[in-house]
Amino acid sequence: TIFSRVLIGYLILIVLVIAMGTYTFYQMGEINKVTQSILNINNQMLDYSEKLLDLIYSQVRYEKKFIISKDEIFYNEFLRLKNDFDRTLEEMTPLADFSQTQLSLKNIKEFYQNYQSLMREEVDYLKTGYPDTQLSFNQKKEEVTHSIISEIEKLKTTIRQNATDKIKILHEIGMELRQMGMVMTGAFIITGILVS
Fold this sequence. Notes:
Blueprint: H1 2-69, H2 72-92, H3 99-127, H4 137-195
């Protein structure tokens, strides 16, 4: 009968609308999740990486001032910056959302501990009266500092690439939504024609 045909047609339309709404709702949730990840993790990790670079450059500057002048004020500033570096690195650790960033953070931490160890050793020598010129700390510290800076730059590149990958995911989700919208529009039209 005509009534059952119309009823079935409308039920099909309702099911299609519900399916499209559910699919769209799910995909919008995925878009939101990826966008929040870029904003809250990638951007914050890049900010922290820049801060680490600033801190290591400042530490090297105060280290050199201390070595030249033997003034405790410079060493105290060096130690303050060390605490800032450690805290920043610790704040980054829970944000590392994939293995490459975790590895880079681990490497930075190891290089940095090596740098701090060399600095403590040199300070101990200086406090006992050994002249700095007899020690080979400068070259070792420069190598370790270069390793820290290189690893931070590598981390920044990794984070940027991860953000780019996430943006590609957003694009793919958008394309899927577009295709689903076109399929559903076609299904609505065909169902509408069949019902009438």
